[in-house]
Design a protein that fits this description.
single chain, alpha/beta, Arc Repressor Mutant, subunit A, 11 helices, 16 strands, binds zinc ion
Length: about 325
Amino acid sequence: MRIYRNSLSTMRGVDVLIKKNRSVPIKIQKLNALLRRLPFNHPKKSRLQEELAKSMAGYNGEKSIDFHLSFLDPRAFIILHDIRMDDGDGRYFQIDTLIFSTKFALLLEVKNISGTLIFDRTYNQLLRIINDKEEGFPDPILQVTRQKKQLGEWWVKQKLPLPPISSLIVISNPSTIIKSAPSNQVIHAASLPYHISKLTQQFKEEILTQKEMKKLSSLILKQHVSLDQDLLNQYDILKEDILTGVHCPSCYHIPMQRQRGTWFCHACQSNSIDAHKLALIDYKLLIGDTISNNQFRHFCHISSKSIASKLLAALELEPIGNRKGRKYKL
Ligand SMILES: [Zn+2]
């Protein structure tokens, strides 16, 4: 488990406990890998680009609230980002950010949606008006209500005392206009510290001990399962459509050429010692998490078996299987 030090808090001489930091979602990594490895005229490309833009907006929205969270008293709160757990009945629930103290828990659902937003409580829908066009989104209030229930049930199963669980929909885009929404449930990111201090005043009773807080966070970290989608299957893309070859770290041209112990890019004339490592990351993201010498040579366009062996050996990957069918864990 890694405990991250927050720069603002470090300046105040104390540590903030962020036990699960935000990392680039695997879906974004996969979309990027897929987009650079499909021929430029591939029919699925524009759909993948749209999906990437949507995922990036969500990720940037979540990242942008980190600044506001840095104002929290680091001795009092534990913050966990991007949690996904089994609720015990085979359904997964996902939480953008979970904050908890000894007195209460707070669940944040971050939305990066621009335009004017209307939370329609009669029909449980979210309307967005932008450029005179109306568009519907799934109701985030309904979504967090469900998450709260699932988190509460999960919590009780861990045999830990359950503090009150609150939730907030956080609109990360400061220029978004929130029109008609329950004011204690939908907020702009900048007012997050204010809402959290309001909750601190509201809930005074100590429900969890410090030890139980730590136990809770390690249980969540242990039970967290990241969502790993098979994009090829999902978008109906054939494995054969994926371009093989080592891509250039500078200009993304595929393939680079193996020349005198390095990789050479014909497009931008640059050299790289270890560009095959990036190709192996793409291989893992798109094809599989083990690779044989043969598969490595085919994917990276290496003709010599002994050079491939040397490159693989230098990566110190864990070997699986006997000599003949040996594969390496990526
Ligand atoms: Zn290049």
